[in-house]
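Hi support team,

I submitted a single chain yesterday and got back a structure, but I'm not sure I'm reading the token output correctly. Could someone confirm the output below corresponds to the sequence I sent? I've pasted both exactly as they appear in my results page.

Thanks,
R.
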Amino acid sequence: MSEHDVRRIRNIGVIAHIDAGKTTLTERILYYAGKIHRMGEVHEGTTEMDWMDQERERGITITAAATTVDWRNHPIHIIDTPGHVDFTVEVERSLRVLDGAVVLFSGVEGVESQSEAVWRQADRYRVPRLAFVNKLDRVESDFGRAVQDMVDKLGATVLPLTLPWRDRHGRLLGMVDLVRWSALRWDPAELGRRVEALPIPPELATEAATWRDRLLDKLAEASDAVAARYLADEDVPVGDLVAAIRRATIERLWVPVLGGTALGNVGVQPVLDAVVDYFPAPDEVPPVTGFSLTGAAETRHAAPTDPFAALVFKVASDPYTERLLYTRVYSGTVAEGDVVLNATAGRKVRVVRLFRLHANRRERLDTVEAGDIVGCIASGPVFTGETLCDPEHPVVLERIAFPDPVVFFAVEPRSEREEAALREALDRISQEDPTFRVHDDEATGQILVGGMGELQLEVQLRRVRDEFGVPPPV
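Hi R., thanks for writing in. Yes, this is the structure output for that exact sequence:
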């Protein structure tokens, strides 16, 4: 991969409150980008990214899932995250390795409790964002109210780039593109694959002009090129507008806001365009920093010519296959068969396999380079938050901080002969989920499991039976 190719990569996550429509949006992204040929639905249990049986039964995302799509010749690595508070660890470790986040808000409910939580997590990791106001096909939805909610509750400096286009009965017809000054209509007969750009309807002209003037006012404050044209009452080229929005987004000065309805197949392609146009490439964010084995500060740039350095941000395990390491490559290159240093643990491991990930499926890779998010199988133990690097140029990257459990259950095997298998299954799950803790109660001798909430514990204890074949504990 050349440096030019690194400039094309986008590493993004989709985050939101539960039921805001994250997985539905991601499903449409996969469809329009040609990754899948049939759209699944959450309510049918047929989505690509919610692949676990429990996710499909419950209709919620439980574990972060990774995939890659191509849009306008840009590889976009996407992580679809859970919205339920019990699974906040999945959002935390995903944001640690991402360069941008698409934040969904319901056009009906606006900013909700977990919306605020994931927003603060993105603040902590200084992740650029764009917002998508979803469910605008609902009668009770209000785009302007949702935008104002972001300002009031999140302190966000918003930059609306689209506006709902409705008929006189309030039915959503499409979206107005305020940047390119056109009305966009999605063809329902083609499931929204075909998007038609039309002149602004006369009945919407006044409202749309007001929103566009607000957009140009803000962009003129940040861009001399936009200001010169705008103040001279000249048309501002779209390229100048896009460049100004891009710079402000990367610098986290503004949050671009788009809208539509993922379930109704309206407004999704502009999200992909915005990811390409406004989010940074890996070499456009500050270089990652860490420490050498002697404690000296080290920096790694997103270039294949720098020494290899990567962070394992998630471990997935089951009793039948090797442990799969979800890995963000920050610098350099690594290939199958290479020996790398687990700098956090101080031991060398061999890279056995490398994969491009698509939910629970894998595509074999020979080599990966700076900017990639991939799956890896190593010859020795590697845990969440550990650094893999060039043995000749060791560096330890900052680990991921996880919250302590707040809920504990006491569990017991159904028989003594099952205790060893139960403990092994619980230990494997705790290695995968750092907020799921297991220890013995010194007073009673019982096994205690702890987590962020009852739903998380219920899900993980069911995995003991479903994935490890151990009778569920009591």
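A quick pointer for reading it: The first helix runs from residue 3 to 8. Let us know if anything else looks off.

Best,
Support desk
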